[in-house]
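Reviewers of the previous submission asked for a worked example of the structure-prediction workflow described in the proposal, so we include one complete record here. The input consisted solely of the amino acid sequence. No template or homolog information was supplied to the procedure at any stage.
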Amino acid sequence: MPRLLTDLLRALLYGLAVLGILAFVLGQPVTGLVATSGVVIAVLGFALRNMIADIFSGIALNVEHPYRIGDWVELTPGVTGRVDEINWRATRLVTLDGTALVVPNGLAAGNRITNYSQPGSGFRAGVPVTLDAEVPVARAKRIILSAIVCCDAVPTEPRPDVVVESITLNGVTYQARFWVADYSRLAATRDAVATTILDHLSRAGLEPASPKQEMRRRSNRPPPCSALGLGRDLLSHVDLFAAFRPEEIDELASGMHLRHVAAGEAVVRQDETGTSLFLVAEGALDVRGAFGGRTLLLDHMGPGDVFGEMSLLTGQPRSASVIANTDAVVYELDKEALDPVLRRRPELAARLADLMGLRQRRNDAHRRASAPAAAPQTAAEHDLLARLKTFFSL
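From that input alone, the workflow returned the following structure tokens.
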């Protein structure tokens, strides 16, 4: 039973006990006392009407239970905190800033109450993103959704989504919607989502729309990235090709193929043969491996990530399946595009083998930590340089 109701019940029982003692033990008349006390109560009730209203509002709140101790609630607009105490007159909240707020029960009962902790499965929040109307809606949704999916602060279930919120003179405003399990993590989750969205937009060669009132000329904006330019930019940030010259990066970029992958479609499948590497340009992908009769989620990938380097450099079968979590865009670099560069500069083979071994050991350590049953082989178990030279006939 709530504390407020037990206090009221205790006061009522004590009052009846006092009257009973006066009437039956001491033999005193209580009729006049009751009549006199009625006048006193009327005077006090008029003087303390606001406090009495708060008390009865507290009784109603305790009976209905719109919130409990520990819930995160918004009792009045702009007044949000964790319920720390519900007493006779007021509800005491502790805000995210660590300050205490005392809200009269009458004020709380007379306003709309928003409870972020019930029914207990979390609540949905959103981050608005405005992009130029020239950006296709499907591409904008793909980039923003992949950013939410790749954000570690957002739970995978319920699944996040992206909707068009409004169309204005400044552009199209999208609402990136995701679920938050605990209100105390709302600000941190929004920050993580917004940061990831900005990173994914930047990798895609986009930026948030600028207010048209600024009268910025379109010539002052950075030109939109072409498919070739975006592919070259992705290649230039891959540590595997750090030793390649700019003109060699350009040559590799011109030999890459652009692929659009629908959500749920496999880019590569485990144990299939292949001779190409993939760079993620847009979207989110899941790395899954089948081990011991079970399929395990090994990793998530987003824009800028690379996979398939072992198949490109040694012809090794795919060690895991890569499935598109959202609609995605990837660049495929095949052996035929890399072969002329290595033949002109055979010394790059040793550098590639060293970097590939380092990447493989790092990836294996990460996968063992997330899925011990996978137990992948490390690059140290093979002479990568010899395999690379044999594969490219160097």
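DSSP finds twelve helices and 16 strands in the chain. We consider this example representative of the routine output the project will generate in years two and three.
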